[in-house]
């Protein structure tokens, strides 16, 4: 198996409070995001914090998707890491849409290619 | 809870094949790394691939640690993401030592501070 991967780091702001605090919604969104990108889901683990916030991961055959949400700040910290032929932006965009993110800051890091490279691309989208 | 976090991306090369292929060893190493850095472990999910390779995550109250190992390439793709007062380099160094990584390329990304920033620091260590 090739080591080469693509890792999108997305900082989502101005998301809906209620969605960021709904663990079942987030878990379903992440599984759907993985499947829509063509990934094979292997492990799913989410945790709800008190009084608010959700952390979780979907381990896929092609790497992982993670979230840490801070509903009180409208902020979600997202990582979508894929290897093989998958495009991580499919899942990253699906998640940002699902959370109604008003501001989306994303970078893409190549992984598994030797030295750590500086981000290949950087994008800011303000809804 | 503050959104600010520190995310270490570590590319480890020249690791031991047997360690990279031992799911129990990796899972224990990751839980120990989290605890040594002062984190509180919330969820643990690891998966062993055939014929080789391990992916997994430890969700901590302060974010997460992940690994994808490629034993046949001596490569482990590591993320250690912490918020609060924790120092992610404690866990990252513990993991690199445990896997006997010969080459360690790491960068640290600030998270949850508004726009995505370019890496704050970058380090290459060759054993």
What does this protein structure show overall?
2 copies of one chain form a homodimer. Chain A is an alpha+beta fold. Chain A has one domain (5-84, 94-107): S-adenosylmethionine decarboxylase (4-Layer Sandwich). In chain A, strand 3 and strand 4 form a beta hairpin. Chain A is 23% helix and 44% strand. The first copy, chain A, has a 7-stranded antiparallel β-sheet, covered by helices on one side. The longest helix of chain A has 14 residues, at 23-36. Chain A has helices spanning 17-20, 23-36, 88-98; strands at 5-13, 41-48, 54-60, 63-70, 75-83, 103-111, 121-126. In chain A, helix 2 (23-36) packs antiparallel against helix 3. The interface between A and B is large, with 45 and 45 residues.
What is the class of chain A in the CATH system? Alpha Beta
Total beta strands of chain A: 7
Strand residues, percent of chain A? 35-45%
What overall geometry of chain A do the principal axes of the alpha carbons give?
globular
CATH-wise, what's the superfamily of chain A? S-adenosylmethionine decarboxylase
Largest sheet of chain A: 7 strands, antiparallel
Average pLDDT, all residues of chain A: 93
Low-confidence stretches of chain A: none
Percent of residues in helices of chain A = 10-25%
Rg result of chain A: 14 Å
Give the termini distance of chain A in whole angstroms.
38 Å
| Total count of helical runs of at least 4 residues of chain A | 3
CATH architecture of chain A: 4-Layer Sandwich
What is the succession of H and E elements of chain A?
EHHEEEEHEE
Tell me which protein chains meet in the greatest interface and how many residues each side has.
A-B, 45 and 45 residues
Oligomer: homodimer
Keywords (chains A, B): Autocatalytic cleavage, Decarboxylase, Lyase, Polyamine biosynthesis, Pyruvate, S-adenosyl-L-methionine, Schiff base, Spermidine biosynthesis, Zymogen
GO biological process, one term (chains A, B): spermidine biosynthetic process
Pfam families (chains A, B): AdoMet_dc (PF02675)
Protein name (chains A, B): S-adenosylmethionine decarboxylase proenzyme
């Amino acid at each position: 198996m090739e080591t080469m991967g693509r890792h999108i780091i997305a900082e989502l702001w101005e998301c809906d409070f209620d969605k960021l605090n709904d663990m079942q919604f987030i878990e379903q969104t992440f599984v759907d995001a993985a499947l829509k990108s063509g990934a094979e889901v292997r492990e799913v683990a989410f945790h709800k914090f008190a009084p608010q916030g959700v952390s979780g991961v979907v381990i896929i055959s092609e790497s992982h998707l993670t979230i840490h949400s801070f509903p009180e700040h409208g902020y979600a910290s997202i990582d979508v890491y894929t290897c093989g032929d998958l495009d991580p932006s499919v899942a990253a965009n699906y998640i940002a849409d699902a959370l109604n993110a008003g501001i989306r800051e994303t970078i893409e890091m190549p992984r598994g290619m030797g030295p750590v490279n500086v981000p290949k691309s950087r994008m800011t989208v303000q809804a």
